[in-house]
Amino acid sequence: MRSVEVRRGLPSFVCATLNHKQGLMTSLTLRQAFQAALDMEPIMLAAVGHGLFYRLDPGLWPPELLFQHSRAGATLYNQRDKAKARRLLKEAGYTGQPVRWLTTHELEHFHKTALVAKKQLDDVGFKIDLQVLDFATLVQRLDKPELFDVFSNTILIDGRGLALSGNVQCLSNVAGWWCLAGKDRLLAELARETEVRKRKGIIDSVQTLFYEDVGQIKFGDLFPLAVVRKELRGDFRSGPFTFFWNAWLEK
């Protein structure tokens, strides 16, 4: 048998994206209740089935990127506080209106994270209407804010830097119209700043807003698994959603 090299790649950002433009999730208190209720460990374990392939971390940018990683707002990540969630639901005046959550079977980690999160949210008093669609239909609906309140999402880590990262932009199909004037000013400042310590301070401020305003609901970091033969040469790439989480070698 020829030798192979197994690598854990740079993680992506697994989340639930909330609709800030229209509907139930325009309520900050309701978003805070959603955020407070969730226990991220079983959510991420359901996504991939083994702790090797996920990490619980509050950062909008992963620890592997040392100068961009932040723990600002970490006390609002993975709260697992059902009592707080129930109190916030009451404060929000929530009376059981269905929260329409779009997801798909075509990306297994979308569907599995949504199922576990739905159970946790139902337990504190939310009524989650989980709508399982084919991926093309899901994408088509994301530009129509009247059709959803939440959708399953993954932010791929790329080289553009936090100032241009989709998870903090005012975009429908990435960030659910999270359009916050203070955040946008910080991103513009970050794009101009070159001094490392000043950039880190701005990133901390953006991430603090992310958690205080509940820009999205980060579940955790998800790692792909790349399997490469040592003798393989050349410019090759695997697809962005080629995962081997449930594969094994027979003895």
Considering the chains and any ligands shown, give keywords for the structure.
251 residues; 6-stranded mixed β-sheet; single chain; two-stranded antiparallel ribbon; alpha/beta; Dipeptide-binding Protein, domain 3
Overall description:
This protein is an alpha/beta fold. The protein has a single domain (4-229), classed as Dipeptide-binding Protein, domain 3, CATH 3.10.105. Helices cover 35% and strands 18% of the residues. Strand 4 (98-104), helix 4 and strand 5 (127-133) form a beta-alpha-beta unit. Helix 1 (28-37) runs antiparallel to helix 3 and helix 7 (181-192) packs antiparallel against helix 8 (196-212). The longest helix has 17 residues, at 108-124. The radius of gyration is 19 Å and the shape is globular. The two termini are 12 Å apart.
CATH class: Alpha Beta
Largest sheet: spatial strand order: 3-7-2-6-4-5
Could you name the CATH topology? Answer: Dipeptide-binding Protein, domain 3
Amino-to-carboxy terminus distance: 12 Å
Quaternary assembly: single chain
Low-confidence runs (pLDDT<50, min 5 residues)? 237-241
How many strands, which pairing sense, and closed or not: the largest β-sheet?
6 strands, mixed
Average of per-residue pLDDT values: 86
What fraction of residues sit in β-strands? 15-25%
Structural class call reads alpha/beta
What's the count of strands?
A: 8
Q: Could you say what the CATH architecture is?
A: Roll
Number of helices: 8
**Shape type:** globular
